[in-house]
Amino acid sequence: MITSTAWPVLRRYTGASWRPAVVLLATATIAAGWRGNPLTPDATPADQAATTHMLAAILFIVGAAALTRLTITVRRLVRQPARDEEAHVQLEDIRAAASRPGGQLLEVHRIQWAVNAGQRAWVIDTANGAIIDYWFAGHTFSPGCFVLVGPASHGGEILSYLPADCVAAAGRHAERTRLHRSEVLTRDRSQRARQEGVEAKAVVEAAERLLGR
Fold this sequence. Notes:
By secondary structure, this protein is of the alpha+beta class. Helices cover 62% and strands 17% of the residues. Helix 1 packs antiparallel against helix 2 (45-98) and helix 2 (45-98) packs across helix 3. The longest helix is centred in the middle third of the chain and has 54 residues, at 45-98.
């Protein structure tokens, strides 16, 4: 199922898939002009047939490319919620591991420099928000990665990490869950308000009937 938050992404990707189509059609029009206008009285049947076949071939290619792009996009959007949920579980697991004694979960903020021996980066301690100048021995990470390291007494051994795209996917799942809960809460409030209105109306009508007797 494609969620409501996925529709803007779908529109963006499907819109982008038509831009190459416009370029190809413009190219076909220019190419047709080079061969001569097939609609003029002096155009030969061969020119008309060649131009028609060329335009048909280009339209077929454009249509096939757009359909392929749309299929891939829809498939990705259908599978995305499950992948986002899986990433959310992985993030919760790594956070749980960081809560154990000696564990530290770092978010890579900015790379200072990297060599074969490792990488120096500015990182954020997710426990307290502190910015730390950190050296990752034998590893390199992109900004946005979450890295779980062991106690400093053990050289800050890297125990686990979550790539930046998985962190972003976990964020999408959290936002999707928040929006869903908000929608459910709003719907429940509306239903309760309608029910209270019906009950209040029934009370008023009952009182009016009693007074009318």
